[in-house]
Amino acid sequence: MKNANDLKQLLRQIDHKSYPAYKDTRGSYRFPGYVLNIDHVQGDPFASPSKVSVSVAGLEAGFPVDTYDQPHKRIALQDHILRLFSRALGQYSFKARGSGKSGLISVSRCGQEILERTACQLNPKNGDLLIRMEVGFPADGRRINSGELIKILFDFLPECIPASLFYKRLNARKIQQVRELSEDQYYIRQQLKEKRLTAFVANGTILPRESGISSRPMKNAVPFCSPKSLEITLDLPHRGPIAGMGIPQGITLIVGGGYHGKSTLLKALELGVYDHIAGDGREYVATDDTAVKIRAEDGRSIKKADISMFINNLPNNQDTRVFSTEDASGSTSQAANVVEAMEADTRLFLIDEDTCATNFMVRDDLMQRVVHRDQEPITPFIERVRQIYQEQGISSILVAGSSGSYFHVADVILQMNQYKPMDITKLAKEEAKKFPLTCEDAPKATPPQNSRCPRQACAFRKNDRIKMKTLGKDAFSINKETVDLRYVEQLVDSEQTTALAYLLKYMELHCFNGHTALKDIVAELSDRIQKHGLVSVNEGAYLSSNLAMPRPQEIYACVNRYRGLML
Ligand code: ADP
Ligand code: MG
To answer: What mean pLDDT is predicted for residues 169-176?
Structure first.
């Protein structure tokens, strides 16, 4: 292997040459303690920056095996290392100068959630560490300025790399805390299953966020406090006993006056499918990790979804067992979201009235009297929620402040009062008896049939280059088709969106064959990326952007919103 001096010499030789001469630097170079890989060199100073990675052998990195011997610990450690490295690197970005993106140095920016990312990977077999970053190779105009790149590769990186990637240089106490938190979080998730809970929210949790654009904890917020009737104590392996609210499986209703914190609680449950970093305030919130937020999503496309358990006898006689539209209404979109989440094997629906289609949720007595059942295609969710739990084992947590109808079907009723939940099940049930539901039971429905087998779209049959572009967290485009993920609210990072683009491309090229069911495709693919990492779906010579792990539920959500899907 070439070494650092070879690289320095090469860089000096190409100084002032025209930019493409930088391409000669591609390759791997041994530096003291690590290997620097120049994986891809940008075409010009204004193009997207060059891809550089750093590999540190397990022996050099030196992390104790018990900090990464299980996936949850490894992911938490990777996340921590990446944050350290990112902080160290931050001060050097654009310290080297020049035109365009010259001097940019960046790694993934981590939010409050702990995600598996291609930006930092620790090999569980041998402790080898790989960090992927972007560097804008410096230029004056379009001429190479290799002196500035030498600064980056020979001064800045050697400052940051040992200081954040070598265990012996790190705060061992902090690393231990990261491991302990991750073990505690893992333990809570195990307990959810054991105790048949859908979620746990520890007392003292800070639920609200700083603002609509910041997901940091709100200062001076009212800490969470469980009602006594739902309080359980878990004995965490490191932190010891911790009390909090255990939400049992079944149907849970959250009511309360406007502005009393209902949606804030639900939002925390939505994101409780992920672990949160220390200091976030939601460290000890865990939700069943298959939970799916269900909402109305007018305008989305639907491809052959079986929404017949909610919608039947449409005026145009469309068969709702294979319902398709390019422009769904509020209620049809929400019905599709429910049945698709079932297909994605969710065990918990999370629903907030703020983002629901009212006619999908309830139909009041008076309306039932005036517009008879035969004239109404929609069977509202309230008439199905019990059946869905009993027959398919899918629980629901619903926020509903304006309609009392759900009192009748809920197992547990919480009232948010001044940001504190109270258990009002008994009272609400008694009151509900005075207002019996007059409707006859809705006819039983057969659960949706999931046998959709996607075919390959024409655009992927040719050997042309497939263009992909991530548009923030909310969307990506693939071969000019935009996949809108704005309302897939449990996506938290644009790198997850990028990963979905890669996964969709992979499925189009290798899995959509007209006879394998979507269910099997997603199951196999999820398995593959869990075992072999997200890089295993990358087919280019290098990874052109970093990716973060989405859940299988989001992979489904992405395929279901893909207008190019051929069925
Ligand atoms: P609701 O859905 O019941 O109308 P929200 O959950 O939207 O209420 O909360 C209303 C406001 O109160 C939000 O601005 C939120 O940030 C704030 N809030 C929520 N929970 C707390 C809390 N525990 N402490 C302080 N403020 C809170
Ligand atoms: Mg609300």
So the answer is: 98
Q: How would residue 439 be classed by pLDDT, with cut points 50, 70 and 90?
A: low
Q: Examine the domain organization and report whether 153 and 261 are in the same domain.
A: no
Is there a single domain that holds both residue 71 and residue 14? yes
Q: Cβ(564) to ligand 1 under 6 A?
A: no
* 330 CB near ligand 1 (under 6 Å): no
Number of independent structural domains in the chain: 3
Mutate to test the pocket of ligand 1, among 225, 259, 420 (most ligand atoms within 8 A of CB): 259
Task: Report, as an integer, the average pLDDT of 267-285.
Answer: 98
Residue 527: partners with Cβ closer than 8 Å, 6 or more residues away: none
- Report the nearest-CA residue for atom 20 of ligand 1: 261
Domain around 465? 458-560
* 351, 563 contact by CB (below 8 A): no
Among candidate residues 293, 192, 301, 313, the one with its CA nearest the CA of residue 249: 192
Contact 397, 348 (CB under 8 A): yes
Please tell me whether residues 435 and 525 are part of one structural domain: no
Domain identity same for 490 and 406: no
| Residue 351 CA to ligand 1 centre (angstroms) | 17
Domain boundary among 449, 477, 508: 449
Residue 340 and residue 325: Cα distance in Å, rounded? 15
Tell me the CA–centroid distance for residue 543 and ligand 1, in Å. 41
Among 449, 476, 499, which residue terminates a domain? 449
376 and 462 share one domain: no
Q: What tokens were used for 156? A: 């800045």
Residue 114, pLDDT > 80, answer: yes
How far does Cα 345 stand from its chain's mean position? Answer: 16
- Please indicate whether residue 371, judged by its CB atom, sits closer than 6 Å to ligand 1: no
Residue 229 in any domain: the answer is: no
DSSP string, 383-447: GTHHHHHHHH--EEEEE-SS-GGGGGT-SEEEEEETTEEEE-HHHHHHHHHTS---SPPPPP-PP
129 assigned to some structural domain: yes
Q: Which residue is listed with tokens 């959810």?
A: 192
Which residues touch 415 (CB under 8 Å, ≥6 apart)? 254, 255, 256, 421, 422, 424
Q: Within this chain, do residues 463 and 521 fall inside the same structural domain, yes or no?
A: yes
Question: In angstroms, rounded to a whole number, what is the distance separating the alpha carbons of residues 184 and 197?
Answer: 17
Q: pLDDT for 484-538, tens place per residue?
A: 999 999 999 999 999 999 999 999 999 999 999 999 999 999 999 999 999 999 9
Q: Nearest to residue 558, comparing CAs of 484, 451, 449?
A: 484
Output the CA 264–ligand 1 centroid distance in Å. Answer: 6
Q: Residue 259 Cα, ligand 2 centroid: separation in angstroms? A: 7
**d(CA 286, ligand 1 centre) in Å:** 20
